[in-house]
Write a structure and sequence with these properties.
The protein contains one helix and three strands. It has a domain at 1-29. It has one helix at residues 32-41, and strands at residues 5-13, 18-26, 49-54. Strand 1 and strand 2 form a beta hairpin. The chain starts with a strand and ends in a 14-residue tail after the last strand. With 68 residues, it is an alpha+beta fold. The protein has a three-stranded antiparallel β-sheet, with no helix packed on it.
């Protein structure tokens, strides 16, 4: 069994109009169904969210990169 690594599960919740971040222990090639179960267990409506795994604890502030 592979070692678990801490990753950050970022969630855009359209029902709540909010972004959430969860620190989760993830195995390499963890099935998507297990991640969906985590999201359901904490109360997200998985039909109205977008999510991604990231190694980053904070969002990258790219405001300075915006061009008008």
């Amino acid at each position: 069994m592979k070692t678990k690594e801490t990753m950050y599960l970022w969630v855009l919740d359209y029902n709540e109009k909010a972004t959430y971040k969860y620190a989760v222990a993830i195995r390499e090639h963890q099935p998507t169904s297990e991640i969906i179960k985590i999201l359901e267990d904490v109360g997200h409506d998985t039909d109205n969210i977008e999510w991604m795994l990231s190694p980053y604890y904070e969002a990258i502030n790219a405001t300075a990169d915006l061009r008008e």
